[in-house]
Amino acid sequence: MPKNEETIHRTRKPNVAHFIGSLRIGGAENQAALLLNTMDPERFNRHVIVMHEGGAGFSDSLAPDVAFYNIAYRRRNSPAALHRLYRYLSDNRIDVLHCHMYLASIQGAVIGRLAAVPVIVTSEHG
To answer: Residue 13 needs a FRET pair 20 to 30 A away by CA distance; which of 5, 6, 23, 89 works?
Structure first.
C-alpha cells in the first residue's frame, strides 16, 4: 500500500452500522437507538439499516448525522432486499456490523460476511 493511502486509511473514521428489523417501540429498538446516539460522532460514522420502517418509534430520536437506510424487506422480495443490504454494506465500507434480533442477525451475518465486513456482532435480545 502506498504511503499516502496508508495515511488516509489510518485517519478514516470507522463506519459502524446497526441492522435491525425496524425502529418501532421496543427494548431492542431502544437499545439500538441509544447505542447509535451515544457513539462519539468524532470517532465513528454511524449508520442504521432497517429491514422495514414500521410505524412510530425511535427513528425520530436518532441524531441528525446518523445515516438511515431501509432495505424494504418483505418475504416476497427478500433476495432483492438482501442485495440492497449487500450493496449498502459494500458501498459504505462498513467496518463493524451490529445485528439486532434473530432474523436480522442471521441474514446480517451472512450478507455481512459476503460483503467482507471485518467485524460482525449479533445480539439476539431477550
So the answer is: 23
Residue whose C-alpha cell reads 478514516 in the numeric block: 12
Q: What contacts 31, CB < 8 A, 6 or more positions away?
A: 100, 123, 125
3 state SS of 119: strand
DSSP labels, 88-117: HHHHTT-SEEEEESHHHHHHHHHHHHHTT-
Q: How many CA atoms lie within 13 A of 92 on its CB side?
A: 24
**pLDDT value of position 2:** 57
Q: Does residue 80 contact residue 71 with C-beta atoms inside 8 Å?
A: no
Question: pLDDT tens across 3-30, in order?
Answer: 555 555 567 899 999 999 988 888 888 8
Mean pLDDT of the chain: 90
pLDDT of residue 27: 86
pTM of the model: 0.87
